[in-house]
Amino acid sequence: MTLRYLKNVVTLSLDAEKCTGCERCVEVCPHGVFDLYGGKVRIVEKDLCMECGACALNCRAEALTVNAGVGCAVAIIKSWITGGEPSCDCSGGGCC
Amino acid sequence: MSEGCCSKSSCCSGGTEDVPAVSTALSFEDMLGAWKVRFGIARMDYLVKPGLYAVGKPNSDSPVLVSANYKLTFDTLRKNLVGLDCWLLILDTKGVNVWCAAGKGTFGTCELVHRIEAAQLSEIVTHRRVIVPQLGASGVNAHEVTRRTGFSVTFGPVRASDIQAFIASGCKATKEMRTVQFTLRDRLVLTPIELVEAAKKSLLVFGVLFLINFIAVRPFGIYDVAVYVGAVIVGTVLMPVLLPYIPGRAFAWKGWILGLCWTVFALWVLGWYTAGNWLLAAGYLLLLPMASAFLALNFTGCSTFTSPSGVLKEMRITLPLIIAASIIGVVLILIHKLI
Fold first, then answer.
1. pTM of the entire predicted model
2. How many CB atoms lie within 10 A of CB A25?
3. Best B144, B309, B312, B313 residue to mutate vs chain A (most A CBs within 10 Å)
4. Nearest to A72 among B43, B249, B301 (CB)
5. How are the residues of chain B apportioned to helix, strand and coil, as percentages rounded to the nearest 5?
6. Which of B46, B72, B87, B338 has the smallest number of CB atoms closer than 10 Å to its CB?
7. B35-82 confidence digits (pLDDT tens)
8. How much is the ipTM here?
């Protein structure tokens, strides 16, 4: 069963002009967001993206951008309190 | 960038005779340790030494698998390597699993480059390829690793249980191997730690109730504790278990709905829908579903499919509601108990 989160919130974007069709993003995406179509990659289902940032980090052509981060409420609350970036720092307990 | 590693581990030997061998069989202690960390006991100290390990009888052609030094990760990987001859290159992720460590950057490009160099991998194997778990990709920039070490990075399957099939097929992953799931089992193993963390915070709640009882006209009793504990279990265990089947998408909403069902039912069983108890009943109906909602919202951090943009949006909408309803609920309950 494919679990889906909120619609139309994801910051992932693809600049098809720059894409070289190397398929690294297809390889690293844990949710099957991309596939190859006519020699270039396209976004199949954007709402499945969890903004982990693996695709953008591994895109040599810099065709992909995403505001990557952790989708964790505890991390976001901590970042509000401490003023830092939300990070998956579970040493205090709470997640993963 | 290369300081710090070479002093203690066997990673700098150059020859293969000093590389520690690991078994693919887990001992009773390994399994007991896994259960302990699932419940949060010494979870952040459950680690193995970073560096190179040998599984089976690897030679210079054998594949190199990269992983994290969380012992639960290490054990999950090695028990899936029965019959395989390979090298394990363990990165120092401070005892955190691959995916979380990749998100933090500790399972990252620099650490991988450093471990490849420190282990003198280019003298141990003749090929120039390392297999990195796919979930490490949010921390590992493959072309940067290649540029700096000469080793190409192949992203392996998401799950360690697919690694043998992956290697047997010439390092080709199916779409299934590439996709993260969130099965009932995946969700269940995460619930003990959620429950333990919520229980710790609940001690504070019980302490406050105990103090209020010194001045209360109608003191808090075992039934008050029971309805509260029920709402906590709903938010930390029942919501994760039923996650795919609860209508709606926002986690807080899913938790709230279940929490409401529980509270309505529990108050009915207790017979608290009476004229004399209406403040108490209204207070609990406002407060407890919101408690379940907040705990369910916290489960976003455990889930495998929530985006930070989505969580932020959900929090902006639900947190003010959770806070407002909880405050009103607490006030109503206190009026009932104190006046």
1. 0.88
2. 25
3. B309
4. B301
5. 60, 10, 30
6. B338
7. 889 888 888 889 999 999 999 999 999 999 999 999 999 999 999 999
8. 0.90
